[in-house]
Amino acid sequence: MVSRVIPVDPFDLVVFGGTGDLARRKIVPALFRRYCAGQMQPDSRLIGAARSELDSTGYRAMMADAIREHAPGRACEDGTLERFLGMIDYVTLDAQGDAGWARLAGLISEDRVRAFYLSVGPGLFGDIAERLRTHGMVNDRSRIVVEKPFGHDLESARALNRTLAAHFDEGQVYRIDHYLGKETVQNLMAVRFGNVLFEPLWNAQYVDHIQITVAETVGVGGRGEYYDRAGAMRDMMQNHLMQLLCLIAMEPPARFEPDPVRDEKLKVIRALDPVEPHHIVRGQYEALSAEHPGYRAAVGNPRSTTESYVALKVHISNWRWSGTPFYLRTGKRLVARSSVINVVFKDAPHSIFGAEAGRHANILSIRLQPNEGITLHVTIKEPGPGGMRLVEVPLNMSFAEALGPDGEDPPDAYERLIMDVMRGNQTLFMRGDEVEAAWAWVDPIIAGWRKRGDVPKPYESGSTGPLDADQLMKRDKREWRGIKP
Any long-range contacts for 256-264 (C-beta under 8 Å, 24+ apart)? Predict the structure, then answer.
C-alpha cells in the first residue's frame, strides 16, 4: 500500500542545540527523509543554532555525516542529499547572551511558519523564549517545540509552563513525547474508535486487566548523570507510559482534534487513584559483565538508590474502568526490547466444554516496538480426533507486511511530529495542564518511597526484572506477558 504524501507549506525551522545528539540522530535525518518523500518543500529552511564555532559549510558537513549514519539508504546518488544540504544554514549563538541573535533574526522569513525547536536543557527555555521575543521573531505564525524532560516535579513543570506562557500562547507550544508519533500508538485510537468489534467490549465488564510494558535492553549509557537524578519513574512512567495509559483508557473524544483528544486524556489522569505502597516495585540492574556494568557503576554513584525499573498496579476511578487493574512496567537492561500493550479479556462466564478442555483468555496485543503490529489471541479447537480440546491461536497483523509502502520503512515518530508542528496540529502533543496533572499524580509516589526509605530491588541484567514484580502479578493470579528473549 503506497502512502499518500501531502506536501507541507514552506517553513523555517530553527533547531537550538543544533550540533547536539538529538539533532544529529533524529531531527535532521527525519527532515531529510520527509524531503526525500516530497513532503518538505525545497524552499523550506533549516537553521542550526548552537555555541559551537562553526560556519554553515562546516555545519552542512556535520549534518551530511549524520544523515549517512542515521538515514541509511536515503543519501541518494542523484544529488538529493546535496539539494537538501543547500537548505541548511547555521548560526553561532549564545542562548544566555546577545551574540548571534541579530543574525538569526535576519535569516527568518516574514511570510511563513517559523518553528523553534528547543533541543536544549529546560534551564535555557526561558532565556531562549525571551530573546526570541526581544529580537522580534515571535508572531502569530511562530511555534515553539520542547522536548522532555518537561520538569522534574509538579513545581518545576508549573514554572516552565509559566515561562513559556509569558512569550507564547498555549496553542503555539508543542511538547513532544516521541511515543505519540509512533504509528501503532496512533492505531490505538483507530482500533478502539474505528471498529465496532472492540469498543463495546472496552470496559470493566469485559476486560479483566490491561498490561503496558516498555522494556529496554540498554543501560543508562551516557545519560548516567541525568538518569540518576530522574530514574525510571520520571524518565519513562510520568510521560511515555502515562500517555499510553491515557490513550488505552480514555473516553471517545467528540472529534479527532487537539483539544477534544487532550481533554479526554486529562480526565483519565485526574481519575487515577493514589498507588498503594504494596502495588509498587522498584528495581536496579546488576552487572552482566565487565563490558556491561551494573547501574551504580554506570552512573558513578556506588550508593545510588535510583530505580532503573518500576512496576505499578494502577486503578482508574470512573464508570468505564472501576475494578479493572492496569499493570505498568518499564526497565533497563532487560532480556528483550519490547513495547507492548496487552488487553486481557475476561473468561466466558461458563464453559460448555468442561474443565478438561482447557480455557484460554482472549488477548489483544498491540506491539509498539519492535515489529509494530496487532495480534488477537482467540480460542479454537485443537485439530485432530480425541474430543474437544481448546487451544489459543494468534491472529497476527504486522504493519510492515500489511501496510508497508513498497517495502519502505514507515515514517518514524519524529518525521510525523515535526510535520504536525508545521501544519499546526497539536493532537499528538501534550498540553500544559496534562503535564501538570501527570506530575501531580507521580510526585506523591516518589515522596512516599522516600519517606519510607524504600530502596530498589536488585535484578540481573538480561532478566525480566525483579522477582517482586512477578509477585505483584501472582498475588492477583495473573502473569506478565510481552517480554520474550
Answer: 256/189, 256/427, 257/427, 258/425, 258/426, 258/427, 258/429, 258/431, 259/431, 261/189, 261/427, 262/426, 262/427, 262/430, 262/431, 262/434
Please tell me which residue in 240, 279, 315, 377 is annotated as part of the active site: 240
Please give the model's pTM, rounded to 2 decimal places: 0.90
One-letter amino acid identity for 348? A
41-55 core/surface letters (b: 16 or more CB in 10 A; e: else): eeebbbbbbbeeebe
DSSP letter for 361, please: -
pLDDT in tens, 287-331: 977 778 899 999 999 999 999 999 999 999 999 999 999 999 999
Would you say residue 1 has pLDDT above 50? no
Alpha-carbon distance of 15 to 164, in angstroms, equals 17
CA distances to 111, 113, 167, 430 from 139, in Å? 11, 9, 10, 22
Expressed in angstroms, the distance from the first to the final Cα of the chain is 31
- CA dist 143 and 205 (Å) reads 43
Q: Say if residues 62 and 20 touch (Cβ distance below 8 Å).
A: no
Over 90: is that where the pLDDT of 401 sits?
no
Question: Can you tell me which residue has the cell 527523509?
Answer: 33
Distance CA 398, CA 309 (A): 29
Dump pLDDT digits (tens) for 8-38.
999 999 999 999 999 999 999 999 999 988 8
Q: Which three cell numbers stand for residue 304?
A: 545510588
Asked if the peptide bond before residue 370 counts as cis, ω within 30 degrees of 0, the response is: yes
Query: Rounded CA gap, 247 and 264, in Å?
Result: 9
Position 149 scores a pLDDT of 79
Tell me the pLDDT tens digit for each residue of 412-441: 889 999 999 999 999 999 999 999 999 999
Domains of the chain: 11-147 (3.40.50.720), 180-411+430-474 (3.30.360.10)
Q: What is the pLDDT of residue 218?
A: 92
Cell for 218?
Answer: 540498554
Is 240 considered catalytic here?
yes
Distance CA(192)–CA(183), nearest Å, equals: 14
Sheet harboring 457-459: ordered strands across? Answer: 390-398, 373-381, 363-369, 338-345, 207-215, 326-331, 309-314, 280-285, 457-459
